[in-house]
Amino acid sequence: MTTPAAGNTLNGLNPSTEFILSKGSGLHAVIERFEGQRAGDMNQLIKMNQLLKVIIVSILLFALCAGCGKGKDSSVGANRPKVKLQLNWKPEPQFGGFYAAEVDGIYARHGLDVTITEGGAGAPTVDMIGAGTVPFAIVSADEIVRARAMGNLVVALFAVYQTSPQGIMTRASRGFKTLADIFTHPGTLAMERGLPYSDFLERKYGFQKLKIVPSPFGDLSLYRTQENYAMQCFITSEPLAAKKTGIEPQTFLIADSGYNPYTTVLATSESYLKANPQIVKLMIDALREGWQSYLAAPNKANEYMGKLNPTMDAQTFKESAEAQKPLIENTETKQHGLGAMTLERWQTLVQQLVDLKVIDKPIDAQASFLDLSRAK
Q: 3-state class of 23 per DSSP?
């Protein structure tokens, strides 16, 4: 068998194969079509690759824009209404719900940017509201009545304490059984004069047997050294500190004498309420949620307040938060929600202040507070 000469082949194929692949053959036409199709497919692949790149770029741009959108949301959050809340004392559990709303992000969720400023003894919070220095501040209900009688139209929005925590503390060793015993036995009473509850106690019990001295505002020096010493207090604060001295205290609520104004009350001015009803509503809603959070789990807010007020130790924060619960929640709050107030209580307070000559004539009790049961 003779091998064909190389010069007689087409691309190394024999003559018969060369014929089969000749341009005129049908198979050659098929191959040309195949190669044309392959070239078309390649074009298609190139186009698909280009399309895929477009899709990928679009996805990346979309993701980037989504990130930009989040940035815009943050800037909107940063433009939340900025409001100030002025306290009338240092950060303690009596303000726990206000701080819980801050540390738990509740103010922010309600669209507010709230700055809380601590106060101190004699902080003129009711005057600060009237002067427009702050939109919100903490006052007591009797301060509001007195302010309104003088033309400072302050409005109560949210009452933390349904039962006033104001009390009189003395040594348990004196054996007193009622608040009246403080006034029927000789001794010293440290009390801030000129306040309505002081006038009420003097009118009801008389101060003839007592030496009245200025309030120590929490200082227990004389409590430690004087057997017949009594002092004004918040039953959620000083009595807890007194126990740590080793001298057991006996505490009496002033509310048991019949004088029980709402205490630790969030207030604003009538003008601010009328101009900013939505902000006021958001503030009330945030505080109600904040106090619900604090009453259920106070530890986080206590830790935060402890850093702001290192004079109160962690154990006292814990005990105080627990001690105040029955003063904050009662049948009214169970029916109308935390912070709610009633017209009857305000009418009683107005009449008491008239009787004490703190105000000359009755004021409109209904206008003194925002009725949360109606505001729902």
A: coil
